């Protein structure tokens, strides 16, 4: 990502196909039309949704991957889908390429969403395969003994992908049960000479007393294959014992042919779309060693640096540090990688409920931003936890408004530069960006308070600028469900409504109203 860059997620989970908010036209068309506006606003990179065909066809968000090579150019009418059309939810391939070209011509980089953990939408397999049932909450516990679904059983699922519409264009690789290591949806189970039918959502035993899906781990590769036995990956999250399995047909990265095919696809995708980077989905479920291998291969083959940010959902930073170290500091070809700061996002959520009872300094502790800021990609919300998905993760309020975003983007590009100094008290924290670097317009002070609204809070901050005036640029506050921006003198601050002077040591008392953020700029520094 460019220095001090801003990545824009140009989609959401519940975004309707051809939504009215995008002019009732495909997302790719809307993205092309907005390319110049995004650049002007200060966006330096756009994260696009999974651009390849999913099980849901035109309605798929993209995380139920069917064919990685279908970017909306193949008619699914006679393939595994019900009657449909070439396009994905977001448009067709030509519209995608036009959008990317427009973004890059406006100086905006393009990052693709990479979903390589699993596949959906295959046909029923032609033959049974040996498997063992593992417990959902402890994947290391295998159901052994003499009972229903105990020990080695034979299962069939939707694991056959022959892509007979696309054929061998771009790739001749055909997926089948051998290329996966687990699944949770079976069509048939055979045990002890008896066979039962399953369903797409659940499998109920003959007694009718089991009504939830289970996980079935495949045990063996085909005869003569090395290694002969399958297993879950190492260097995945240790949640649930081993969190290799997430959903669908879990891709088996223990196989050389699978690893090579997915690396080839990554190289193809970069060249086909002209990408600048990736957001890699669900990395806690994929071997960190393979992510290092994949990123290194694609970078080498395309001769691009390819900014890469990983989605590793965790409430604490320890697994994030371990992951970064495994990818970036081990192996023959370590690869630099950034990680989304989910611990910070979860702290934001808690702070939104606790109000003045939340200790604001805690936002700067136990987060990737605090512990490895150069590798942290911070965010307030994304599609994983957006409103409507997980009730336990929602914010207390989801305000609207655009003016404040425009101002923050401009401040970031023109003033959030140079050395950073941080100051804190329980209900008020402040940051100084010192400037003194190329592109900086001057010094900026940002102060946040979560004290009750209507109260004035102050914090002593050393600016390094002696006897210097800072003027009140703006206060951002919530009003009637929207963030509004109050520019110029702020009457609540009394005789310091318009300006604050530092003393002979460079220190000053900077103000913010409770439940607002205030911005103070160095005298004569002007935001363009």
CATH topology annotation of the domain at 117-252: Elongation Factor Tu (Ef-tu), domain 3
**Straight-line distance between termini:** 23 Å
Shape: elongated
Specify the biggest β-sheet.
9 strands, antiparallel
Q: What is the CATH architecture term of the domain at 117-252?
A: Beta Barrel
Structural class: alpha+beta
Oligomer: single chain
* Proportion of strand residues: 15-25%
Number of DSSP E strands: 27
Mean pLDDT: 93
CATH class placement of the domain at 117-252: Mainly Beta
Rg from alpha-carbon coordinates: 26 Å
Amount of helix? 10-25%
Low-confidence stretches: 203-212
* Count of individual helical segments: 8
Topology:
Blueprint: E1 7-9, H1 27-41, E2 45-48, E3 53-54, E4 65-67, H2 93-105, E5 109-114, E6 118-119, E7 129-135, E8 138-142, E9 153-156, E10 180-183, E11 188-191, E12 194-197, E13 215-218, E14 249-251, H3 256-273, E15 277-280, H4 288-302, E16 307-310, H5 318-328, E17 338-340, H6 342-354, H7 368-371, E18 376-377, H8 403-414, E19 420-425, E20 428-433, E21 444-449, E22 456-462, E23 469-479, E24 482-487, E25 499-501, E26 507-513, E27 516-522
